[in-house]
Amino acid sequence: MKRITPIFVFSLIANFQVFSAIDFNREVRPLLASKCYACHGPDEEGRKAKLRLDVRKDALKNDVIVPGEVEDSEFHYRIHSDDPDEIMPPPESHSSLTQQEKELLDRWIKEGAKYDKHWAFVKPASPKVPAGKKGWVRNPIDAFISDNLTKNGLTPSEEADRYSLVRRLYLDLLAFPHRNKPMHLFSITVRMLTKDWSINYSDQSITERMGTRMADLARYADSNGYEKDRPRNIWPYRDWVIRALNKDMPYDQFTIEQLAGDMLPNATNDQKIATGFHRNTQLNEEGGIDPLEFRFYAAVDRVATTGTVWMGLTTGCAQCHTHKYDPITHDEYFGLMSLLDNVEEPDLFLYTDEQVKAKADLENQIAQKITELQKNDTEFEDAFAKWHKSESIKATPWKTLRPSAMKSNLPKLEVMDDDSIYSSGDVTKRDVFDLNFTSDQPITALRLEVLTDDRLPGQGPGRCYYEGRKGTFFLSEVDLKTSNGSKVQFAKPTATSGNGADKVIDDVGSSGWSSAIGQENHLILPLADPLPANTPFSIELLFERHFVASLGRFRISATSSTNQPRVSKIGVEAEHILSLKETAKSRDLSALRSIYLEKVYLERPAPTQPATVQTNTRWIWNAKGNRPQETLYFSKQFELKELPQSAEIFFTCDDNVEFFLNGNSIGSTDLWSKPVTSPIKKHFRKGVNFLTAKAANGGGPAGLIAQLSLKSKNGKVQHIFTDQSWKFVSQLPNPQAKEWHTQALPNPKSVVLVGKYGDGPWGNLGLPQGKPAKKPNPITQLRNRMPRPNHTLVMLERPKDNPRPTLLRHRGEYTSPKHEVPAGIPEIFGLSGDQEPVSRLEFARWVVSDKNPIGDRVVVNRAWRSLFGYGLIRTNGDFGTQAPAPDHPELLDWLATEFRKQGMSLKKLHRLIVTSSTYRQDSKASPSLLEKDPQNRLLARGPRFRLSGELIRDHMLKASGKLSGKMFGPGVYPPQPLTVLAHAFGNKSWNASKGEDRYRRSVYTFIKRTAPFAGFMTFDGTSGENCLAKRDRSNTPLQALTLLNDEMYLELARAAGLEVHRRNDDPVHSLFRRFLTRPPKQSETDVLQTYFDQQLQRLRKGEIKSSEIAADPKATPELAGKVLLARAIMNLDEAITKP
Amino acid sequence: MELGSGKIALASLLANETFGATGKPDFMRFPVKAKRVIYLFMAGAPSQLELFDDKPKLKEIEGKPIPPSVIKGQRYAFIQPDAAVLGPRFPFAKHGQSGAEFSDRLPYLSKVADDLTIIKSMHTDHFNHAPAQLFMTTGSGIPGRASMGSWLSYGIGSEANDLPGFVVMRSGGNLSGGSAMWGSGFLPSEHQGVPFREGAEPILHVANPKGIDRTAQRQTLDLLNKLNRGSHGKMGDPEINARIEAYEMAYRMQARP
């Protein structure tokens, strides 16, 4: 829809060029297209009076136009009529023909009313190269240009001075200025252009520069757009573009891989990544959208973008109706969509070579570790045997069920080799899977496993790709019916993990079961009554959510066991082996051992933390119940093989107690509700130890409780606690003497257990309910080190048995589907039946073949535009009938054919253009030249225009010495005010990158669609919402404010000032050269020096603060002055302009 | 230093490649009468169904299931198939000579009923926030079209010497449609809305950086003007003069009363 194409272009051209005969394409068609075709053009619905003027044979009907006979042509009378009822165009169209235009049309009729095929649809033939201006022509470009100049009475400008030329070349090719080097580098530059273009760093640079332009076309962004605008991971595509351009991938290959890389035989990961081109469409993640509707809008965008990038056509209009001016019908539009739309849109998971290796290494290590742990742990085999015995009894044998038939509302279901079911194709917010089975065994319970798969978003198990977390699923309901339609009731379902297992049988769609993404879990559905063998039945799975949430891969099993079926948290494989009982083979048992080791044995609760009281720890005393006032002496003897690493005691007593370890007091309390917990560091000894207590009751309930926890060096924990084994006496000969603490009590009595810990009246004593100390599981630790794959968005051709039909949508509205449209290219391209592409790959091959008359012209026009500021055809994206004729048609065609001849190399194309004399011209515009050719369409002078926002930043980064050479990777965040993000709906944070990432080339800047980077937008940047074939170049005060005041640029002014200061360079000369390449003239030096001195003076006086300007508390006025000088120079028109 | 009016008016802005030498879009043959357009876009305001747009039928079937004709074949988020209809919560009455209907929630506005134009013929199928907001502001539910404001800026231009022609003022909340709501789409990008931001700096970078006072800024501009004029003398590019004017306008925008 980028169609703002005025007709006066025609008159300009007419001034320049003298034509003997009328040229239909150049003069008549644009006129008819803009004034007549709306009612008398290709669009049948809009056509008036059944008159069609865009096809000659129709226009000649009924003597509307009589070739050669103006007076006999109704057309002539109608355009000249004074009668408002007769005149064409009619007054209500608010369109009219000038006298000049009317005369032109008359002349055209007189000359035979010749129609020509629109030039853009005629294959470019290599035109004859004119001689051109002698001594000036470096290559055929110059021949065409000078030939045209001569015809218009002009001569080329002088060659630009070498500084301008070097600067122009550097900015165009490397995206930064040449800096501070001797001028002999110019010869290197020229060599670089004329030889093999093999200098490494420049390679990268030019491709990053071209990458920015490709990103505009690809509407590349790092977020999804629309309200939520969440980040997306598609930078591998951006990196692919840069790499592809870097190695100068031929343009045909470059195109085919982006449009259909996935369909190439044995497609590599890179070729798949390339298909991200059409995954750059926006994704609406708002709750409740119809995902298929927004899929359709993405498909619409893909047609429009493809049209702009490769066909030079604005196809957008034909989305809603047959094109008013261009010969693209409504049906043909959908034919194009059909070519592009037979796709799935998955994530592609990417493992680097290092990751693949690391993964294999880790798997080895895990296997080794498992063997080693089993071997070295003497308790393992016993523990396993015990566990195996008890678990085998409880295990349930499950048998997977293979559906005899499957149906769904839309997704395609297929059974995999492992009997699991995989879902692909389109999904909705309410998916229903209907699966038919028969089992030769009775069924007492069903099991649904949800499985992961790399083909699923987030690796599954669900197919959610927006709004929720990728890979989420939500199972609303499970229905089981026998073939006669009677419903079979379930008992309470349970699941290994996740919420809502029991909600899948509640008949409420909005509640259900979901478990974690990237994990395999299962749901057990016990039947209320067994289903007899050989009863055909169906299972209906309903997935209903406000976003897509059906399962992507799952498996159903059944059991006949009368055992209570149970979920198996350690996985279905273990359950299977356990259920084999005696029939398990040694291989099975070995696998089971490994599972047991990893998931049970190493996960067993470690001995509890000291604060946690052991279950066998008791309150003790000499008797239960209310006791009189009395004092008792308790003693516990225990052995230590070695001194503990650490120890902690907990004790209390109703009413008071003092504890001793081997005769040393280790604490006391006189209130039962104030238990003592304290570490004990000393007083232990190897061999026999005594823990003793002098405890007293003041009357009423009495009790003593204590627990000593000892941890050995190897982590083993041993507990000594109050229980039946403790002894006591109520009297001692000499309680003050140490003896009773260090030897067995004389005539001891056994204690009476008066309660468990937690019993009343004491309760839990306010002790923390410590958790078992979790010992790290060494296998889990290894698994956690498994490399996580990167991922990117790609296209995948749908399988042959599940094509997506493309329906014509009336008025382009998703909600008005009409008939199905076959894939195809608009008729105007003149393909016969067998040439017609029918798949995306064939289409991709066609757009870059010489059968596409427009494709090559579009590419060379884009390259031309990037170097000269204007294309040879100005619309850049649109070569349709309303597009003005090219300024230099023969040159455009010559470049197009040359481009193909030279292997479709973009680098060669650029080199060809920049090595022309045309490119080397001085860009000075004399008043007379300015008057004659204000827009420099004839190219009698060199290009001069403002740089893009991205290029300005890159250029300033380089000149200030801050530019990072780091390439590739996720988007980065240069500084910008946070208020830029304030209006965004979703994530408003912009954590400006630190270090090198702050100064990366602009092509790596994170693009957030709803709040794009302000520093670029102010300079006509793009938010990546639509394909952008050409940028505007506005000139606004907001740009001035950005360059003057934006912290991003201030930082660079400071860096440049500091560098010049450190090197002790002459500030004026050095800074000038950095930012403008050329040395200053004397007059400029004087003005700048005056400014510098002026600022220095104010800084020295303290009128402005050096520390603030240089953002450095220790900054001197000299440094700050240089910062101000750098800032001023960065704001010069010349600093942001290609000379 | 005086630079004349410094006006960057429509004509000069449009004198670019898009419009060729005449510098005027084709449709601008009509006299421009509107001086300014103020467009309040109130996302999250009370529903028109409770303010201006009485729905007696809804009242009638309140509490009953949604008629199948409404949701047949459609599936809406958050709406269960058995959901019931909710009617207007407040009574409506006719006001003024026009008989415009207002609910009793607008007791004051209804008194000036005859001074208001209420348009009820605007419909959209978009019921999600972002597409609906984009539809309201750009005529399309998909981001990337030219917004109403940029069309007006394009068609009417700006008379202001020291302000952008199309500004966007924002208060509170989150905007689902994002910056696409004031984007210029396929129109020249200078017609994109300039967001006035909250806080002390309504226009991005309108405040001088710390340490740079107005004198320093003026002296810098004087330097730039001198050198840029020199450039113009040498290169003859009219864009240089436009840049000089843009800097002067920027300086005026920085002036605080």
Describe this structure in words.
The complex is a heterodimer of chains A (1139) and B (257). Chain A is α+β, with helices and mostly antiparallel strands and 1139 residues long. Chain A has 6 domains: 6-116, no CATH class; 204-347 and 800-911, no CATH class; 354-395 and 585-604 and 780-788, no CATH class; 397-565, Jelly Rolls; 618-762, Galactose-binding domain-like (Jelly Rolls, Sandwich); 1047-1138. In chain A, α7 (140-151) packs antiparallel against α24, α12 packs antiparallel against α22 (840-847) and α18 (572-580) crosses α19. Chain A starts with 7 loop residues before the first helix and ends with a strand. Chain B has 257 residues and is mostly helical. Helices cover 28% and strands 5% of the residues of chain B. In chain B, the strands form 2 sheets. In chain B, strands 1-2 form a two-stranded antiparallel sheet. In chain B, strands 3-4 form a two-stranded parallel sheet. In chain B, α6 packs antiparallel against α7 (238-254). Chains A and B meet through α1, α14, β30, α30 and α33 of A and α4, α6 and α7 of B.
Helix share bin of chain A: 25-40%
For the record, give the distance between the C-alpha atoms at the N and C termini of chain B, rounded to a whole number: 20 Å
Q: Could you give the count of β-strands of chain A?
A: 31
Mean pLDDT of chain B: 80
Number of helices of chain A: 35
Helical fraction of chain B equals 25-40%
Which oligomeric state applies?
heterodimer
Report the sheet with the most strands of chain A, covering strand number, pairing sense and barrel closure.
7 strands, antiparallel
Structural category of chain B is mainly alpha
Number of strands of chain B: 4
Ranges of chain A where pLDDT stays below 50 over 5 or more residues in a row are 1-19, 196-203
Give the class of chain A from helix and strand content and strand pairing: alpha+beta
